[in-house]
Amino acid sequence: MGDEGTLISKVMAAIRRRVASRSLPVGAKLPSIRQMARTMQVSPATVVEAYERLAAEGLIRSRPGSGFFVASLAAPLDLSEIGPRLDRAIDPLWVSRQSLEAGEGDVKPGCGWLPPSWLPEAALRKALRGLSRASDVDLGEYSTPLGLAPLRLLVGRRLAETGVEAAPDQIMLTESGTQSIDLLCRLLLEPGDVVLLDDPCYFNFQALLRAHRVTVVSVAYTPSGPDLAQFETILAEHRPRLYITNSAVHNPTGATLSPVTAHRMLKLAEAYSLTIVEDEIFADFEDSPAPRLAAFDGLERVVQVGSFSKTLSASARCGFIAARRDWMAGLVDLKIATSFGGGRLSAALVLSVLRDGGYRRHLDGLRHRLAGARADVAARLGRLGIVPWLMPRAGMFLWCRLPDGLDSADVAREALAQNVVLAPGNAFSVSRSAGACLRFNVSQCDDRVFEVLEASLRGARARAPA
Amino acid sequence: MGDEGTLISKVMAAIRRRVASRSLPVGAKLPSIRQMARTMQVSPATVVEAYERLAAEGLIRSRPGSGFFVASLAAPLDLSEIGPRLDRAIDPLWVSRQSLEAGEGDVKPGCGWLPPSWLPEAALRKALRGLSRASDVDLGEYSTPLGLAPLRLLVGRRLAETGVEAAPDQIMLTESGTQSIDLLCRLLLEPGDVVLLDDPCYFNFQALLRAHRVTVVSVAYTPSGPDLAQFETILAEHRPRLYITNSAVHNPTGATLSPVTAHRMLKLAEAYSLTIVEDEIFADFEDSPAPRLAAFDGLERVVQVGSFSKTLSASARCGFIAARRDWMAGLVDLKIATSFGGGRLSAALVLSVLRDGGYRRHLDGLRHRLAGARADVAARLGRLGIVPWLMPRAGMFLWCRLPDGLDSADVAREALAQNVVLAPGNAFSVSRSAGACLRFNVSQCDDRVFEVLEASLRGARARAPA
């Protein structure tokens, strides 16, 4: 009976899984008793009992003479259910959720943004005052489909500084860098397509792609870009439709693409009809621009996206897409369909700050301050045996390896109990092979971080299997 | 040879269609010569010639010994390609595109928003000044996952006035009402699901659903809600997973749901496991609230969405979702994955205006002004033989029928040549059965609208088939 009970549970679990994954949607007919018995290698009586119990729960119901059907609301799409579950607690949304939900007193060396005091708050306040007085700013209207023209012009000029040529009609403003990538996925992907990511990569690329129901493959990232041999093998084998990566400063590694790697990548992309989304969200952190794929390629098969959330304000939501001219109408349609007009207010605010000479000075100061912080934090981490994979040329991140084979998920959990949000390596790793790594945001590392880190390392060591 | 040429073109067109629709994605192998010849009922030689020509064009390429493969970038998703194409020029995106792209001097009686001078611009400017000074507003940070807590509390209180009970943890702020519906579609729908809309309905529901690759069915809307007999038949026959509709003031008809219809709809929704998205974007136009499905249902199988773009500002992007508590975690994950944090700045601005006593006064004045404009515009349209389907109790829309069997697409094209953007009926109609209708926004109808309308009617009459 115990054994029979186990078999009944097994059948019930199989149906529940199929309902949860929507392979059996509401209203769908369940497999016949006989068919299910064959599939699960159990007796028909076992299936009858399992179906009856599921009907009693309300998940399915029987229609006399025609079988069993899915009755209740199927479980809604759950991003945390879709991906690899080897390390359930540390999924790609872990860092975002913990960082965005952190309380007042929490420290967030794992988060991906600067503290408010590092941002040009005075310039933002000045811009708000300006907007409240300006007679030419329409505070009530939707934006035009492509977005505020003078800001598009200015974005084009900024891109030109990195060698990317984009006319204002090839630039569409969005509400964020994330929305930019989302719109491109909507334009270019179908469910079931294959998409290539770096390993490690920005964790939200994975979360976003789960929402698009595509298959993700990954290529190891080296200090000068993706591993080219692996890149070619994957292109030949999996034929990914898209590759999403960071230019300027790679997240989380801080690596910089080399010109020779960029050139070879583009040749391979052409040979295998690959489209590349180049996210240059960290562009303003650079002293001198690293090579851009979009500059080599001329926006043929490379699309650029970016935003102002890292160096100007994460609160005024404004991003952009620079793409081939023949994709713009489709992108505009998708933007209208899924978010209607853009935010004229945020765009006007960003434009006002960018136009102010103070923003360049702010960036100069910021780069200097980050360089100091990178050196300082690397030294302090070194004393704990935590070593950066490389010393980045720019940006806020240090991608580090823990000592003694410690598991960063363990360390992150210990630290979270002390209200310190760390960013464990596997949140960034499609292959879940970065369990020994942590990403540190040097602008968010105060003394308490190192104290808690030391204690957490001790805790993780004590709990590690001998 | 002419005949052979036609057959070759036929095969080429078939392949092009399959590449454009992505049923043959990049890298996919084409059907073998023999197979394609059988399918198209042509000779193998015809297929060989067609494939060679497509290869010469670069769309496909041959790999010796293994056949033909799709070579070039497949056409990206084109929303205008997916839906019904009976009336290509007037697709669901027509009104949005024309209205959002309208130039300075254009008049937009077809658009879905108020002129800036009808919005509380002084209150907005005051709120901006306040934000520029406030010490407690963080201008650099991302918002928390659910969004600004005091605004969620306030949204909950406003919903309570219509009988909808939603605790702050059942409310998530978004960047727009459209994004709210988009996130719900992402949570609840799979490609290929069936979704029910009203006929007529807000055109962007159709555009949005195309982006989700679902099948749309529609139910005729009556002055008191959807036609109940048809509603039941459709639920039984098509088993739609979602029904998206307007509460408060129906767009485009201005109809008001009756309590008895609401009650019966909910019983049917329960019987057929239907989830309902109730968009209450026009709520603030009402003098006294019409019945809300969500109030009857208690947010069990009804989800409410809304925004502040119609009565406060379309520029400060801020919307919300009020839903079952067990859906909130999934919605938050999707919001983070697809747009990261929300816009704290817009939320703070909206909160500031809503808290100001001036907003209630603004609404009182606005409702009065709209009531006058509805009566005035109805009278002036009547003189042209254009008659409202009903006189709405609230809001900015009049859904009208043209005289003499005139086609509203024709009239709209005539008017557009005179820089007047009208909203032709079939943009709102899933069944494309509203060719004789136009939606008028009474707040955007100045003298020129009636002059151009009169001339356009004349033009359309002259061009109409005798």
Task: Summarize the topology.
2 copies of one chain form a homodimer.
Chain A: H1 2-20, H2 33-40, H3 44-57, E1 60-63, E2 67-70, H4 79-82, H5 94-101, H6 121-133, H7 149-160, E3 171-174, H8 177-188, E4 194-199, H9 203-211, E5 215-222, E6 225-226, H10 228-238, E7 242-246, H11 259-271, E8 275-279, H12 293-297, E9 302-307, E10 319-322, H13 328-339, H14 344-355, H15 358-383, E11 387-388, E12 397-401, H16 408-417, E13 423-424, E14 437-441, H17 447-463
Parallel strand pairs in A: 4-5, 4-7, 7-8, 8-9
Antiparallel strand pairs in A: 1-2, 3-10, 5-6, 9-10, 11-12, 12-14, 13-14
Helix pairs in contact in A: 1-3, 2-3, 6-14, 8-13, 10-11, 16-17
Provide a compact summary of the structure.
Two copies of one chain form a homodimer. Chain A is α/β, with parallel strands linked by helices and 466 residues long.
Largest interface: A-B, 85 and 85 residues
Named CATH architecture of the largest domain in chain A: 3-Layer(aba) Sandwich
Oligomer: homodimer
Unreliable spans of chain A are: 81-88
Determine the structural class of chain A based on helices, strands and strand pairing: alpha/beta
Strand order of the largest sheet of chain A: 3-10-9-8-7-4-5-6
- Note the overall shape of chain A: globular
CATH superfamily of the largest domain in chain A: Type I PLP-dependent aspartate aminotransferase-like (Major domain)
> How far apart, in Å, are the first and last alpha carbons of chain A?
41 Å
Number of beta strands of chain A: 14
Helix content of chain A: 40-55%
Largest sheet of chain A: 8 strands, mixed
Organism (chains A, B): Microbaculum marinum
Keywords (chains A, B): Aminotransferase, DNA-binding, Pyridoxal phosphate, Transcription, Transcription regulation, Transferase
Domain HTH gntR-type (chains A, B): 5-73
GO molecular function, one term (chains A, B): DNA binding
